[in-house]
Amino acid sequence: MLRRLSLASRTVVFVALVCLGLLAIDGWNSWQSRQLQLRQMSVATSNLARAMAQQADDQIKLVDTVLVGLVERIESEGTGPAEIARLREFLAVRVAQLPQLDGLHIYDEDGNWVANSRQIWPQNLNNADREYFQFHRANTSRGPHVGVPVTSRTNGRALVPISRRINHADGSFAGVALATIRIDFFVNFYASLDIGQAGALGLIREDGTMITRRPYSPSTAGRDMRGSDLFQAYRSQGPVGTAYIRSAQDGVLRLNSFRRLPNYPLFVAASLSKEEILADWWRETLWHSAGVVLLVLVVGAVGWRLVKQFELQVQTEAELRRARDALETLNGTLNTLAMEDGLTGLANRRKFDVTLNTEIGRAVRDASTLALIMIDVDCFKQYNDIYGHAAGDECLQKIGRTVAALAARRPGDLAARYGGEELAVLLPNTDVQDALLLAERIRNAVRDLKIAHAGVENGFVTLSAGVEALRPSASDGQSKELIEAADKALYQAKIEGRDRVCAAAHSPTS
Questions:
Q1: For residues 482 and 365, what is the distance between their CA atoms, to the nearest angstrom?
Q2: Backbone phi, then psi, for 335, in 5-degree steps?
Q3: N or C of the chain: less Cβ packing under 10 Å?
Q4: Radius of gyration, alpha carbons of the chain
Q5: What is the DSSP letter of 149?
Q6: What digits encode the pLDDT tens for the residues 368-397?
Q7: What's the pTM value of the predicted model, to 2 decimals?
Q8: b/e for 17-47, b at 16 or more Cβ within 10 A?
Q9: Closest Cα to residue 166, out of 89, 94, 73?
Q10: Are residues 404 and 423 in contact, defined by beta-carbon separation less than 8 angstroms?
């Protein structure tokens, strides 16, 4: 009776530990899945911010290039009646060519309109009160100036002014060349980006003045953002950064990535709602956790039933013996699987080492030759860096299948993954010339796969191979000698430019 109770107690503890272990593993996996989701979306928002910054920089640069030409033209040709007439035609053509532009304007040193791109001459001809005009009048800088958003006095549109100073010949202030970009140009571009229902995008001056935002409202342009957490995070982290920020606009907690434009004093912010980022994770976790809880309940019920069934000790012992037999069978299966590389399906290093020693012994007895081809994927680290490890694994699988199809045609031949991106082909009763021919077929077959590789000159994945063959003697160290010789030949193929086959102590072929 005491023995039965002690065994029952141990069973209860075991079942409880199993249930707790299942819950702990599920919780850990769920947490890791959550962290992975957040990391992936952090990369996504960073890439989105990079694209937004490049788009804004490119569009402003196109406009700024026009302004550079205008300033040079005015400073060299002047603003006489004939020059102004030609200039107005030029401005109209440029506005028609650039869809982001609302207009191009030239002002004299008093802020009066000299020329513009519009068909109808505006009634209010003086803009000396505008921020961009006052900036250029007070600053001698010849660089571009991105002004605060303004509302057009001629058509009521919200605009971003891009301007440059015009000088007299003596360097004094002569006026301003102005280009106005429609804010709705950026609004339409931002509307085309997928940021979910609660995401947000923004284009902001470095002094904290909002240019535009998605979701957009007319009050957005010109808003002071200096007191916002977003602006403070940008100022503290530098030109590029990521932070979780609760929006001062709508109170939504978002993952924000911000980036300064390469050439202009603006930065963009791309943000996704944290709740939306984790929505799919929550659904998956709830379903998965419900399944685990159900499994724990089943395990607990089964464990309790086992406690109640100790009187069936004889039957239990019989089941244990059957389980032991099944485990032995499984161990045998696992031992077989232990000789195979899980990624490529080729023999693994352990199988290679065992087979090499066996074949050397056989070659000694038969006085026959044994050849070895050492293969290495060219510039594979760069491939992983460019395309990621998942693509690298797929690349190795394709190469492994190709090598296996060509190299393992005879019963004694062995194709193995030697380590990392390095493969080996063992060829009993084969001389150097036959091994070279096979290595060349493998190299050409992999080239024919045309696996794209942007990190190499020819644009796709290639192999290098080293070949050696020997007639083993009864002395020790034959396997090491064969491997080192083939490896040296492989190294020589790498030195000579990769994508080639070299034989030990022989001239390379390619």
A1: 17
A2: -65, -35
A3: N
A4: 37
A5: P
A6: 999 999 999 999 999 999 999 999 999 999
A7: 0.54
A8: eebeeeeeebeeebeeebeeeeeebbebbbe
A9: 73
A10: no
